[in-house]
Amino acid sequence: MELRGLIAGLGNPGQEYERTRHNFGFLLIEALLAEAKKGGQVRPLSGKKDNFALWRASFGKNSGEWLLITPFTFMNRSGDAIQRVAAYYRLEARDLLVLHDELDLPLGRMKLKRGGGNAGHNGLKSIQQMLGSADFCRLRLGIGKPQGYDSAAYVLSRFSADEDKALSETLAAATRGVTLFCREGETAAQRFCNAFSLPSSPS
Q1: In this structure, which of 15, 39, 128, 195 has its CB flanked by the most CB atoms within 10 Å?
Q2: pLDDT tens, 3-23?
């Protein structure tokens, strides 16, 4: 089956970072792997010495196969692992979809876009530097930015119990958005993702 591209979920490795806001990308990769096991297939590719976890997966009819990666290089060096895998499989920046947390969107909103700046996100900055291009798609997963919070501390805090329902619903919608991306392409996925909003989220 044809390899279509690389989907990278951003986050930090280690138990102390599990379910933190900065690990939204990791959480979505977990959801995508669960979805792929339902109607497609998943094959682990990485070894114990790799600084990433890597899978080759499909999402049923017309999806083709995709590489899914979670870098273990910490957020500010995400590009190291992604560039290594992209080079090995001869993929370019345009073949990449990055899943990451976004302070400028509330929890319950997401936006899919291609290119643009990094808005101070260290993971995106690292990827742009290592690939030498910003011409990749990114799914921005809202985490909000409460007034009075230190941003660095906030992104490393865990989702609260009160946010669990919104998190689960957003992950389910984001999973649908990414599988749309794989099956029908960027435009269809963008239409769905950018229109999604939980009732409690500002439009």
Answers
A1: 128
A2: 999 999 999 999 999 999 999
Extents of the domains making up the chain:
3-195
At 57, give phi and psi (nearest 5°). Answer: -140, 155
Catalytic residue list contains 121: no
Catalytic position from the list 4, 21, 22, 77: 22
Residues linked to residue 43 through DSSP beta bridges, in sequence order: 56
> What pTM does this model have?
0.95
